[in-house]
Amino acid sequence: MIRPLVSRLAPWLVVLVVLTYWLDKMQQPGVQQNGELQQGVDYIIENLDGIQVDYTLAAHRLFTAHTLTHYPQGDITHLEQVNFTSIEPDQPMIRVSADHAELTEGGKDIYLSGNVSVIRGEDADRDKVTMLTTFLHLIPDGSTAKTDQSVVVTRMNSTINAVGMVLNNQTGDIQLLSRVSARDERTRR
What we know:
CATH architecture of the largest domain: Sandwich
Strand order of the largest sheet: 1-2-3-4-5-6-7-8-9
Number of helices: 1
Largest sheet: 9 strands, antiparallel
Protein name: Lipopolysaccharide export system protein LptC
GO molecular function: glycolipid transfer activity; lipopolysaccharide transmembrane transporter activity
Number of strands: 9
CATH superfamily of the largest domain: Lipopolysaccharide (LPS) transport protein A like domain
Radius of gyration: 27 Å
CATH topology of the largest domain: lipopolysaccharide transport protein A fold
Keywords: Cell inner membrane, Cell membrane, Membrane, Transmembrane, Transmembrane helix
Helix content: 10-25%
Mean pLDDT: 80
Shape: elongated
Oligomer: single chain
Organism: Nitrosomonas halophila
InterPro entries: LipoPS_assembly_LptC-rel (IPR010664), LPS_export_LptC (IPR052363), LptC (IPR026265)
């Protein structure tokens, strides 16, 4: 009596074990061909607008992004169509825009790419400085920005082209790394 029962249950037990194994594999994160775990999306926010106000410093920071995607593994945030504006008393306005941004470890490092634009000053300001590049690495804790890509810096009628740049925002020093050329197109009198 027990033998026929075991023989009837054996195929069902095999099917149950195979099904359990398959379900377990489906629930585990997959492995990419390079061996890294695929990163699951934690959350996605579209059409993001934000304001940060520091009342003691009277500082305002405005930011927008078309899409924000957060990955919990590695605490990485991807942003698309990013705009950032910083307004502080006795400081020129700073505007930064880029097609893409990646923030790591909660903003410890920020990587901007694709049509990166940094504008210091208002549009009507004579001292307005514009910097254009395809990649910019921002290190907020060190007040540093750097790139190894081509950079175009424009102020009034002067244009500087270079490859590579390191900017220290605390000291205001800009170091242009290679292939530096400058052009001044002021009207001659």
